[in-house]
Design brief:
alpha+beta; 8 helices; 3 strands; 3-stranded antiparallel beta sheet
Length: 136
Amino acid sequence: MTELSDIIEEYEFLDADDRYRLIIDLGKELEDMPDALKTDATLVRGCSAAVWVYPAQTDAGKLHFMADSNAAITKGIIALVLKTVQDKPADEILRTDIAAALEPFDLKNQLSSNRTQGIPNMIALIRDTAERYAGG
């Protein structure tokens, strides 16, 4: 899996259209989320597109998130968010400033507000999940 720093480096050299395509391509790399997990309980509220996030704890005590969306660009944004936290221990996720990690992508200026309005809700869901698992 490509590191976030490598994606940032590539992103900085692209024009707006290619940046959009890069984000969409990242979404295509997400692991498939079974339809059975796409329920009201895993739906992220406040997103313009449908977004589902399902957390699980690995045997090693790390958090692994499965996620999907019905919109290609939103799925790419999810992939960016997950790049900051995927397969890390809950306490490390809590120490991670996800919003700051995404700042180099300048998503608010690169995408419509419709496409970025759910990002804080995705981040909040991930942080809430990490809080539940931390120390447990």
